[in-house]
Amino acid sequence: MPRYTEEQIARANETDLVSFLRARGEKLKRSGKEYRWMKHDSLTVDHNEWYRFSGNKGGYPIDFLMEFYNMSFPEAVKTLINESPGEDKQDVKKMEQEDAGSHEGCPIPSEKAKLQLPKAYENNERVREYLIKERKISEKIIDQMLAEGKIYEDAVKHNVIFIGCDPKGTVRYAGIRGTKEKYRGDAPGSEKAYGFSHTGTDDTLFVFEASIDLLSFLSVTGDGWETHHYISLSGVSEKALMQYLTDHKNIRKIYLCLDNDTAGNIACEKLAEKIPDDKIVMRLRPAKKDWNECLTAGIDRKDMAEKIPLKKKQVQEENPIPVIKMSDVEEKVVQWLWYPFIPFGKVTLIQGNPGKGKTWLAMALCAYCTAGRELPNALPIEPFNVFYQTAEDGVGDTIKPRLAKCGADMTRVRFINEEEKQLSMTDERIEKAIRQNDVRLMIMDPIQAYLGANVDMNRANEIRPLFRNLSNIAERTGCAIVLIGHLNKASGVQSDYRTLGSVDIAAAVRSILFVEKVEKEKSQDIRVVYQQKDSLAKKENPVAFSLSDEGLVWMGEYDISIDDLLAGNTGTKKETKLEKAKKLILELLGKRKMMCLEELEAELQAYEISARTGRDARKDLEDQLIYGWYQSRKTISLKKDS
Of 222, 414, 470, 586, whose CB is crowded by the most CB atoms within 10 A? Predict the structure, then answer.
């Protein structure tokens, strides 16, 4: 069977169609950089390419003669180059090698001709030099495409070969671009439906006429381009685009990036009409004829293209979702009201069974914040205002007397008036009142009273928005918000699941404190504060207090597990820092008789006892101590009868 070689077919497709038509007396009309064939005014010709808009078809000279002159493939090739099959000397040699199995000629294409890929050269240096130095395409992009096997250098002409695959990775297309001569064509057997492309992960597709324009666009896109989809049509035919949309159902937004000439602009409108109406279609029109011209001209990225909506029933492009880069987030140090139990700017939950001391703990917090009263291991603070919202106890007969017993400053303890309208977690009065009163601690007792009407605390979807709003208020104002809640009546379950209501309540807060009475301790009244959840700091030992007619008295650290605490079992009282400090002072002075006060304080700090605790310890021991002076330095010693 007569065969035309690849080289003959390539030369045939290099024929300048403008010169060809004029030589046959056809009338052409200039239209920008292109020509219109007057016999078919919807057809444009540009060098060796043609496109007919009425039929949405295009191609190269061989296709042109077959389409408009009714020639067969061999007739079209012979007309364009005036040669018979294998007439070229090199082709004759190839024909002679056919029986030896090394014939590389191209058979006359049939409808299902097998793709004949050009043989790859041993390296890609000429292709790299052409694309990087002459076309100014990013070296990083080129090396990536070479590594992925999407481009390579052919062994005969040293042309660039652009590979197109189907979704299974089977090579179905090979585009050829000359590196020395101005040539552009397809390897025999190429399927236009599978062009040179990159498959991304999102829903956005960019469409180009030529592979080099696609690579030029990527060169100015910057990091992150891999997430999008890109495809070259190898012309203006819709085949590759329609096939890509069929293979990738998730594509929703399409940018048509065809050349900025008559053919490209009209083709974009035609393509937009064929794209389904549920897609967003935009035209990215390059500032120059094509994207490589923009790249080589050094046009700034922001000035490189104009974005134009194309579809008549254009789906409104979504407003971009606001996102924040973690690199732009300012790191913040957590401030503590009571380390590590209650942080400022967060929500804390205090819970326990009824009558076990939750409210008394809340009173002690108010006393510490408003009047600097004792709080175990807490640092000295400047007094500030607090809110105490309660819907469970009487303000006049219960709350105020307890606050007084704890030593709170009544002028600094306040609450939002709920006579006209009950307060809820979503009430805008909370944030306003916190700011207006310079409040840094707000207590809400109990939780269920402030959820709002018709809110089921067992439903996660109803609880989450409430706690998100409250957390945002705490974050914006820097106020510590403390919620008081009861435990559910379940027994024999983990403490994590004893929170009343949805588990989302426990998940939303940053710290959870259990307050329970040690029921099996008969010799004295002991209530323990145990931290069950500690999202922001290292968990410390539980602390204990007792209740009497005089009010709340702190007992210091107490060693007990949460399960034993909830079961009412006893634990072990630990030595407090104050007790440790007093014991150490007596030991040191007993051995050394007399010490400089500065020396004593340094010794205490070596045992992690603060200066304040040291002063409190000396105050408690004042009946046993005596002060003096030695060489202008204050001294301390034990009295002789101690």
Answer: 470
